[in-house]
Design a protein that fits this description.
This protein is of the alpha/beta class and 448 residues long. Helix content is 41%, strand content 8%.
Amino acid sequence: MNQLNTLTRRHFLRHASLALAGGATALLVDYPITARTDAAHSASAPPRPQPLKFSRDLRDGLRLSRVTNAMWDFSWLTQHYPGGAFPDFSRAADALVERGFNTVRIDAFPLVIGALRSETETITIPADPLANWGMSDRDREHVVTRELTEFMRAMKSRGLSVILSSWGRDCKEYPGRIQALAKDRNGFRKAWTRTLDLLGSKDLLDPVLYIDLDQEFPYFSPFQSELNELAHKPIAAGSLASSMESAGQYPQGMARLEWKSAQMEYVRSLFSEMLPFFQSRYPRQRFTYSLTSFHTEVRSLGLQLFDVLELHLWIHSPRFDSRSGFNSITKDRGQRSYRDYADRIAAALDTVGPMLVQEMRNKCAFAQAWSEEIAAPVVTTEAWGPWWHMDHPDLDWTWLRDWCEQCMKLAAEHKFWGVTPWNYSHPYWKNWSDVRWYRKVNRRFLRS
């Protein structure tokens, strides 16, 4: 019998996908050929799709009809060590299930994986003890491919889904990855391809709910500098903290709504190139770009390419930011006074609270309308309050907890496919111990 006929369907499809890829990289591994003597198996019919549900609600036909997400960004890796917040991935998965989450969103470190010389290579994440997210007490070594594999296996074993994203992170061995790929679309494609093929070689693509190619585009993207140059506003390379700050800004007036025609065409070209490339190579995966700004601009492009519409929706608006002084405060885990900021938050809520509620309702309605327009389910994985908040004696969590709970109800009313309680659902925040609250808000959304 011809050897090809003895392959299982799974191995055949894998070999075919690698052959079509052409330019396989050093990380791509060949798959074992397993002979099958079951004649009926080798002669079985080709796979058929599951029957479709012609429901009024497209969520009814998705693998998860509702998504409750914890955003673990790059923390899952940077704090994966004895004494860190994620020392044991199996226990971390159990904690998600206990709190009613069915999905977790992480940085898969594709830009780093794209640069590695082998799967076993060790990288060094620099110390960053005051970081808002993913703080590391000292320089720590990681085998990123092995740890990503272990994380995915732990989630898969608990029946949890994973959203893969990229914050454009690098490491000491491969610094400046964003700058290295700034004008290299092919290098960006290869980095993600290498990452997804690695997971595919280990049967770990099944838990992937979707892939967000570029976190909060364009703020953490290799292509931000090129986009800015088209506006004649080149910017210097920034840190992760400065990228977070830029993504969280809400400029006054129309500045937030300005992409010049050259920028619009650039984004159209980029999205129209990247999304079909990955959809063609991985037809069983969903792909998107998450957005925290420029919603109107991207919507006006009229693209029908997003498999998921991921929008990050915040309390920020000119009336909130000007009253609270949010944009001017220093945001880290240092010893600082935030008493004035806390007073300003209280003043904003007491003075224009109803307006802020209506603003959030409008944002959810906008998201729902756009979702229906392009026939893509809408998700928010970072959302609701100010994008920064800390465990600090001056900062009150009570109002934020109530605000986020009400916003989750708004999301359910506007037919969101997926939500997050807030972007502080990490074991290193004290709120993680409030298991009852997490269960309540997640269960309510799952039943919506």
